[in-house]
Write a structure and sequence with these properties.
Largest interface: A-B, 26 and 30 residues
Shape of chain A: globular
Strand content of chain A: under 5%
Radius of gyration of chain B: 24 Å
Oligomer: heterodimer
Number of strands of chain B: 14
Distance between the termini of chain A: 29 Å
Strand content of chain B: 25-35%
Largest sheet of chain B: 6 strands, mixed
Radius of gyration of chain A: 19 Å
Strand order of the largest sheet of chain B: 6-7-8-3-9-10
Largest sheet of chain A: none
Number of helices of chain A: 14
Order of helices and strands of chain B: EEEHEEHEHHHEHEHEEHEHEEHEH
Structural class of chain A: mainly alpha
Chain lengths: 245, 317
């Protein structure tokens, strides 16, 4: 546990040393606010004390933010040669992965917490929020972030350049997000129903829509947990490949 | 302490980088790993440190197999990779603190350990500086401090003095000599004087195979029936001389060294002591109407033994 904590602290520190954390947090506070108050007329036009619109957009916001945060997780270590250092310390690949993952998740969680002042302020000044829905939305957002981080970590482990890791991660996340919307904008013939349902069920965004409506469905929780674990496994296999390469 | 048995490493189905290497290193021994670039030294060290797994064969460190007890083995070893990679955005203190934490050093022992290492490696002036601001010499010292901080039983140092200036090399060697009293050390270097100054035994590797594994004294004694003859020939054309020298019998190898003056070319020949190379050379030079301006015989030293055994190697990793 102490070794995971040491890796966690180092990673968290590196986010702040390199200013990534500051940029991430500032943009994350600004963008949701602009979206909440101004996009499509903002909260005032909708006249509804809800953050649903913000959370509906969150899978797309994460497509840029999370690869930006995690692109260096392995690519930077490989590029600078510190991966050799890291894996000759008495730590297992799993411990390093968990330490790094928790550090990225901490930054995302802090950014999400920083948006909490929107419902708090609105609650005080304008009207009461449905706090059950708010809990579901933030809980779902954390699960969504776990999946995104796990996917982008895996992609970072395959590359040596930060820009490659970023572009590849963002492209894959975009693909996994938009396929969920395809069935609603495209007519699928009946014999391609299986493709339609595959798109809906594998998309990272469709499983989030229930959370953004305030519904916690165990299938959605299992889906995000599953995606996270599958990409953890792939990441560990990718790290292990260095030993046999 | 370290036992390597029939070690093989193949990268991505290419030509094996290590081909059936076996050696033992006893507790407290200081062994130099010598070889040209691409010989497989770094690959062997990476496998001993558990960074990579062997494709074939086995490595035992303190009786434990590197495939089975990696955390135990990593705890025993302090490994300094060739390019001394470090987390450059950290200060020296932060980096050493991180190293202590990740090596599970007790919290109350961390600060005393850092102080001890800072003193040993003379890092007092830079301890609060970011690693990115340090010179290469200081970075090497930070690297050494970080690999020593958990008091490892085994030190594995890959080209520890590469890129250092002469003053820094002297300081580094002093530190190594001090450490050599207590630890098992594997030192890979291109600098033969370093091996002669520090190591008790040398393992010479060429193309992934061991070509010599002995004490320096034994290696020199075994190769003492050989000698190097340095000679200078005055002639008009170097290529003509080089081609012609191929016909002089009695030497294994003749190499052009440098041009001394306008038309004087210096060569080095490796011969047996009882060969008649000198006589053949003198006759040949007379036949060609060239002039032999200089000739000196030398017994083989470690450098020459290395050249003979390891020779030139293609740089292919």
């Amino acid at each position: 546990m102490g070794r995971i904590y040491a890796i966690y602290k180092k990673e968290l520190g590196s986010f702040f040393y390199s200013s990534i954390a500051y940029v991430f947090l500032v943009l994350f506070i600004l963008i949701p606010n602009i979206m909440f108050f101004y996009f499509f007329g903002g909260i005032f036009k909708e006249d509804l004390a809800s953050m649903r619109r913000f959370f509906m957009m969150l899978p797309f916001v994460f497509i840029v933010f999370i690869p930006g945060l995690t692109m260096g997780s392995w690519a930077k270590e490989k590029n600078s040669g510190t991966i050799e250092l890291l894996f000759t310390f008495p730590v297992s690949d799993f411990e390093v992965l968990i330490g790094k993952f928790l550090a990225s998740l901490t930054i995302v969680a802090t950014a999400l917490v920083s948006t909490l002042f929107i419902p708090l302020l609105t609650h005080i000044m304008l009207g009461s929020f449905d706090w059950g829905q708010i809990f579901s939305q933030y809980f779902g957002a954390l699960l969504l972030a776990c999946s995104y981080i796990a996917i982008t970590f895996f992609i970072s482990s395959l590359t040596m350049e930060l820009i490659d890791a970023f572009l590849l991660s963002a492209s894959i996340l975009l693909l996994l997000t938009v396929i969920g919307y395809l069935p609603s904008v495209t007519q699928f013939p009946a014999w391609l129903d299986w493709v339609k349902y595959t798109f809906i069920n594998t998309s990272l965004s469709t499983h989030f829509s229930n959370f953004s409506k305030g519904v916690i469905d165990s299938r959605d929780v299992l889906y995000y947990a599953g995606v996270t674990l599958v990409f953890f496994y792939l990441n560990l296999r990718s790290l292990e490949s260095r030993k046999w390469g | 302490m370290i036992s390597v048995k029939n070690l093989v490493k193949v990268y991505d189905n290419n030509e094996p980088a290590v081909k059936g290497v076996s050696f033992d290193i006893n507790k407290g021994e200081i062994v130099g790993l010598l070889g040209p670039n691409g010989a497989g030294k770094t690959t062997i060290m990476k496998m001993i440190t558990c960074y990579m797994n062997p494709t074939g064969g086995e490595i035992f460190v303190d009786g434990k197999n590197t495939l089975d007890d990696q955390i135990y083995i990593k705890n025993l070893i302090g490994y300094l990779p060739e390019h001394t990679p470090q987390y450059e955005d950290m200060t020296v203190y932060e980096y050493l603190y991180f190293t202590c934490e990740v090596r599970s050093i007790k919290k109350e022992d961390i600060v005393p350990s850092i102080k001890k290492m800072v003193k040993l490696t003379s890092l007092e002036k830079v301890v609060t500086k970011k690693i990115s601001q340090l010179s290469k010499g200081f970075r090497k010292r930070v690297g050494l401090a970080s690999v020593l901080i958990h008091d490892p039983k085994i030190l594995i140092l890959d080209e520890p003095t590469s890129g250092l200036d002469p003053n820094q090399i002297i300081t580094f060697r002093k530190i190594l000599r001090r450490l050599s009293e207590k630890k098992t050390i594997i030192l890979s270097t291109h600098i033969l004087s370093e091996i002669e100054a520090i190591c008790e035994r040398v393992i010479i590797i060429k193309s992934g195979k061991i070509v010599a594994n002995d004490t320096i004294q034994n290696l020199i004694a075994k190769n003492s029936n050989e000698q190097y003859i340095d000679f200078c020939i005055e002639a008009s054309n170097l290529i003509e001389v080089e081609n012609a020298l191929l016909n002089v019998k009695g030497a294994w190898k003749i190499e052009f060294e440098k041009k001394n003056g306008t038309n004087i070319f210096k060569f080095k020949a490796l011969t047996l002591k009882d060969s008649n190379f000198e006589e053949n050379l003198r006759n040949f030079v007379n036949e060609k109407n060239w002039k032999l301006t200089y000739l000196e015989k030398n017994n083989a030293n470690l450098e020459e033994i290395f050249l003979k055994l390891a020779g030139e190697e293609e740089e292919n990793g």
